[in-house]
Design brief:
mainly alpha; about 0% strand; rod-shaped
């Protein structure tokens, strides 16, 4: 999460801390990209409950739930 917290300008022209967040990258975009990558790589099958979920009868009938 360092990329989201890294400010582009740490100090003002007077030498005081700017206390600003990075206007280019924030937590929303980082979490969004992380969620998409985990979903596309079927991370739930490796580290989570993905195999158990896929085996449920409700999910077997409605494959769009995977």
């Amino acid at each position: 999460m360092g990329a989201a917290e890294w400010p582009l300008d740490k100090t003002t022209s007077g030498g005081e801390p700017s206390m600003s967040t990075n206007p280019i990258t924030d937590y929303h975009s980082l979490f969004g990209v992380t969620a998409i990558v985990l979903a596309l790589t079927y991370a739930g099958h490796t580290w989570g409950l993905g195999r158990w979920w896929a085996g449920l009868p409700l999910v077997q009938k409605n494959r769009w739930l995977i």
